[in-house]
Each structure stands twice: as structure tokens, then as C-alpha cells.
Specification:
two-stranded antiparallel sheet; alpha+beta; 183 residues; five-stranded antiparallel β-sheet
């Protein structure tokens, strides 16, 4: 489950990714058209569970839309041992409770809760080795406070992920409005 981004945000991320790609030769770069704010990753699901998942997701509600500002960049776990290059998300206070509500709705279906604390971000690249990483880290210094745009979401989406040699591709299966009183 994920929140979608605006085309303006995707466009704002294309230029820095194109600029940084040559520096991160050991990285697998995300394509902006597939980027989204993951609320819950559930992995492979047997088709027989899909109807129950849909029904559980239809119960998830929030009092207000989620407001997000996409800004800054960083590395997981840190700059000394970077494995993931990410873009930050500053969001309204209801984003984490929304993700937790999705977790609660899916747990009775045998989908385990995430053990890590919810940390909203956009994955820009997954780093597979250390070749060129120092240059990449230095080049991102100027982007640490850069704002890439804002978005407002009142629905989340169930995505299907397909792994291909060119990287992951995502297909939106369905959408769920989560704001109380919204249709």
C-alpha cells in the first residue's frame, strides 16, 4: 500500500537523479514514474487472499488527508555505510497512524506487522557496493535541504510490484479513499 506522488514531484526528482547516476555506478536507481510513499509492504500474496485484503483495506480511515512535503536526501543506515539513498518526507501527523491502521487491518489475515519504526521516504537508489559511493555522498550535500514539492493524499493504492532486469515496475491495482466522509 502506498500514497502516490504528483507529476510535479516526479519531474523535480528526475534532474538530480540524472545528475547523480554517473557517480553511483554500483547503484540500482529508481525510476521517478514508479516512486511512491510506501505505507505497508506485504510481499507476495496468494490470489486467494486478495479479496480479504481488499475488504480489510476498505475499513481503513483517517480524519483528514495526508499533507506531505518532499525534501532533503540521506542514506540508510548512514553516510559511512550507505545501502539506500533516499529523499525525505515531512508529513502531517496522521501519516504514521494511517500506516499503523493498515498494519492493524492486515494482521488478522496473517500479514505480519513491520518490526522497524515507520520512516516515510522515497527510495532513490539501492547501493550494491562501495564503488563511487564517496563521490555520491559528497555530491548530495547540496541537496540535503532541497524541497522537491508538496502533495496531498486522500487515498492510498494497492500496487503490484514486478521485478524486471531494468528494475522494479509498479502497477496500481486499486485505490482506497481513507478520509472519513469521502467517497
Amino acid at each position: 500500500m502506498a500514497l502516490d506522488l504528483t507529476e510535479e514531484i516526479r519531474e523535480a526528482l528526475r534532474e538530480p537523479i540524472a545528475k547523480l547516476k554517473p557517480l553511483g555506478k554500483s547503484a540500482r536507481w529508481a525510476r521517478p514514474e514508479g516512486m511512491h510513499v510506501t505505507l505497508k509492504f506485504i510481499g507476495h500474496v496468494d490470489a486467494s487472499k486478495l479479496d480479504a485484503i481488499r475488504a480489510a483495506l476498505a475499513t481503513v480511515r483517517s480524519d483528514a488527508p495526508v499533507e506531505m512535503q518532499i525534501s532533503g536526501v540521506g542514506f540508510f543506515p548512514d553516510e559511512r555505510r550507505p545501502r539506500v539513498f533516499w529523499c525525505g518526507i515531512e508529513a502531517s501527523a496522521n501519516l504514521a497512524p494511517l500506516a499503523a491502521e493498515i498494519e492493524r487491518a492486515l494482521e488478522p489475515l496473517g500479514i505480519p506487522r513491520e518490526e522497524r519504526k515507520f520512516a516515510p521516504h522515497l527510495t532513490l537508489a539501492r547501493l550494491k557496493g562501495s564503488h563511487g559511493v564517496d563521490n555520491l555522498v559528497r555530491a548530495t550535500e547540496e541537496m540535503k535541504s532541497r524541497v522537491f514539492g508538496s502533495a496531498r493524499a486522500n487515498e492510498f493504492h494497492l500496487f503490484e510490484s514486478m521485478t524486471k532486469p531494468s528494475g522494479a515496475e509498479y502497477r496500481k491495482i486499486e485505490s482506497h479513499a481513507f478520509v472519513k466522509g469521502a467517497a
